[in-house]
Specification:
alpha/beta, Arc Repressor Mutant, subunit A, five-stranded parallel β-sheet, 13 strands, 41% helix, 25% strand
């Protein structure tokens, strides 16, 4: 799941690291212009606004998100307590406003609550392929009924492939799913991550294969005797 963290408050660093640890791909934007550009370039499931400096501009940004991405959740984190401002932010489209956050656990509980309230999309339905069961909304993955944990980037690759199982996912879309806009991508980084993911799935008896399509991308398919089989 891709998250946009917009703002330059001290809390942004803590929130970003925690989200990354939980397996989210996090794009960070520390100016209003970069935030607006990111909204136009990418689809986000969640946007977190942390800057109190963008007071009036936040309302315009919220209206932009509400009009352009109605399925995107928005959480505003601010240091100042102004009931009128809170009302305006909620009316403009914020799903939750957190003032003076002191308890990190509460912040993330409220973020998770916003995500649970969002309408499910077709891409968030549970996926069953081979012996693997995967819930995109929670990043929960199991093989033959047993929980299975993947490193963050390999999980992001699996997520992108599983959402489009038996169809080819282009290289560009995979890179966008795995790397944030500020990440430096080495030439063979994606190939190396896919290779490690393929080995882990094979060793765990996942019953799936990641098939390369030369010059295009990769496809996640069910393995059968003698090769793979797609149901699409």
């Amino acid at each position: 799941m891709r998250v946009l963290l917009a703002g330059e408050d001290a809390s942004a660093f803590i929130i970003s690291n925690a989200l990354i640890r939980d397996g989210y791909v996090v794009d960070e934007a520390d100016t209003l212009d970069l935030t607006t550009e990111a909204v136009y370039l990418h689809e986000y499931r969640l946007v977190i606004l942390t800057s109190s400096e963008w007071r009036t501009d936040r309302l315009d940004l919220l209206r932009l998100l509400n009009g352009r991405s109605p399925g995107t959740g928005v959480v505003v984190i601010a240091a100042n307590d102004e009931s009128a401002s809170r009302t305006e932010l909620l009316d403009a489209g914020a799903d939750d406003c957190i003032w003076n956050p002191r308890d990190e656990a509460e912040v993330f509980a409220r973020i998770r609550a916003v995500l649970r309230r969002l309408p499910r999309t077709g891409h968030e339905q549970s996926v069953k392929v081979g012996a693997v069961s995967y819930r995109p909304a929670t990043h929960e993955l199991s093989i033959a009924g047993l929980p299975f944990v993947l490193p963050r980037r390999e999980l992001a690759i699996f997520d992108a492939l599983a959402r489009r199982a038996n169809r080819v996912v282009p290289h560009g879309r995979l890179e966008q799913a795995v790397y944030g806009i500020d990440d430096e991508i080495e030439s063979n980084a994606l190939i190396s991550n896919i290779s490690r993911l393929r080995q882990r799935l094979s060793k765990a008896g996942a019953g799936v294969s990641i098939r390369p399509v030369r010059g295009v991308g990769y496809s996640l398919e069910v393995m059968v005797c003698g090769g793979t089989h797609g149901n699409a």
